[in-house]
Please model this.
Amino acid sequence: MDFELLLGIGRFVLATTLLLLLTVPTAFVIIQMEMKIIAQMNLRFGPNRIGYKGMFQSTIHGFKVLAKEDTVPDQADRSAFTLAPWMVYMAAAMSMLVMPFAPGAIAADFNIGIVYFFAVLGLSVVGLLVAGWASYNKYSLLGGLRSAAQMVSYEIPLTLSIVGAVVLGGTLSFSELIGWQLEHGWLLVWQPLGLAIFYVSSLAEVNRTPFDMVEADSELVAGPFTEYSGMRFGFFFFAEYVALFIMSGILVSLFFGGWLAPWPFPAQLDGFIGTIWGIFWFFLKTYIFVFIAVWLRATLPRVRVDQLMGMAWKVLLPLALVNLFITAAAVVVFEL
Amino acid sequence: MTKIDPDIRIPDPIELDRIEEQRLRSVAGLTPAQAIAGGEYAGFDQVGIPDRPPQTEREREVYTLDEGEMLINMGPQHPSTHGVMRLVVKVRGEVVVDIDPVLGYLHRGIEKLCENATYTTVLTYVDPMDYLSTMHNEHAPAIAFEKLYGIRAPKRAEYIRALVVELNRVFSHGLMMGFLALDMGGLTPILYSFINRDEIVDMLSAISGQRMLFNFFRVGGVNWDTNDEFLSRLGTWRSHVMKNIEMNEWMITDNEIFRARTINMGTLSGKQAIDLGVTGPNLRASGVPFDVRKAHPYSIYNELEFDVITQESGDSYARYLQRIAEIKQSINLIDQIVDKMPHGPVQAQVPGIIRPKPGRAYGAVESPRGLYSVYAISDGGPTPYRFRMRDPSFITLQAMPVLMPGRLVADTMAIMASLDPVMGGVDK
Model:
């Protein structure tokens, strides 16, 4: 057999294993952040028993869901019900493949990485819809349909908002786009409107407050997850936080220079040290945006489902088109 | 020998059954079997209790589904139903077509218990009714029994009563702020509300000995005089309460999402509110200046200076603003009460078991949820012959089927939270 093919397969297996292994601690860290930070903002103590200042609380929760019984409702569509959490989780984990952690630390540096990312992330809506349908529960059904409507609607402004960045960079590859930002400055400066649209849409896309319509607990109990228990619920739960991490990471890569260090520091280093340096800055910036999402959750109430859809179609989509038009015109006029 | 009131006549149960059956047939136009076989009537199987024919025309209307409609059962176990309330919601997609509040999951028969308790112990039974306005629950029967027995509480007792009642109103309205935000997904305001509540509850616990079911009122006075701990806690609380409330308000009042979800939502016009019998802040938010404290002054309210606050629009946002304004008004009243409080005894001379002369008495107070009143009939014995309570939450719930149609499922909880019912009081 071809040695290069074997090497490619080996590299692929290694990369996917590492990424899958990364998802679980990421979810633990973000859940812990959410519990502790929201508690502090609510003037509560938050978890403070397990580990130093309760830092292993979410890990224990993770093991707890493993130990719990998986129940399937009598009238549920058993195969679809079982498959749905897996679909949602895989959509989140697969989109991590193109995540640019650092130079040399991208599992698959496609030349169409951006297209791949949005295509795969959109798959999670199928899982939510299937979960809502298969549960044989009206709350689940409403939640599933809401999630379908919400995510399909927000994917359009989300995708359009980065077309401006793509036009400026002239590339669909994350690493090349970051290379462009190294030369021309972060896209945050070039695409402020695009950033705003992307940020709002990404919150809606990963179902975060104030757009957490899907599992609006005061109306729909837990939306499509109502009937799930044990590790199946755990998969949904993890996928949600992994998706938040991924969205923050993509936001950083597209608009905040990805692995590039900010001004007083050397933007990029060479070799192995450069990879560590890149990973450090990437995670720092990403977790700042994760923190902001947690902060928003502690602060804002939830918008209503019709207001949410209205915002996608009446505000964000026209703005995204305007942004694209201005960018394209500028590229043509100023020959950027 | 007890003398039974001539006005109260109990019909023969068999005759009642016959009348009821006739009424059902005429209402439904069908026999029960036909009603089920007809196919249109969805019955209760959809929402989890066994099939039975419709009992009233209203029930038939709610449970009959048109094409594309569905029944959703919210509660009695649901993350946000304010206690064990059950709403059967008829929806078309996400739009609410009709709503049927189903009550009785918290029924404890308190009125009947009170009819078997002596007048002095009745005041301990009414506490857990509307568990967020415990002091008001005790105030109304205390007034009614004092009228029955023909005594008056000493002046200082009346002042202490007004003081604790207004403190109770502050924390009850404060919790409404938090719950309204919580039912829209805002996590934090409720915890700030509970911090404010905790301070007041500690204060009331210092004067009454209990934190929630205070058991503080007595026929002819109150249980304890004010003490040092109560007064020092009151002073500390008063020094920063406005800041706390404004901090919580700052998170909610001007929040764009909160405004979008409450303004023009669940609008109740003044006439509708009066027709439905809605009272309290909900009525005043619709622009009707009716406040029992002003309209039928009891206790010492005619000695205090205050105006009846009203809002204009009658929507959820107005109801929220009304609560905020009333919190500030109550704090102002507390200041006045503390300034004017006279010295003297806090309890009139009342025997352990009182036996009022046969007669009737009515005691009404303005509770945080509206006109809360007690109607007691004495037959000369040691226990009330009849003890009836009008709870404002129960009446307020009548507005739900009026406000909901055409709104979205998400609004049901938000509008319900803005009406601020307490199920303990509804089910009694």
Observations:
- Chain B touches chain A at residues 70, 72-73, 78-80, 94, 181-188, 191-192, 195, 251, 255, 257-258, 260-261, 408-413 (CB under 8 Å).
- The first helix of chain B runs from residue 13 to 28.
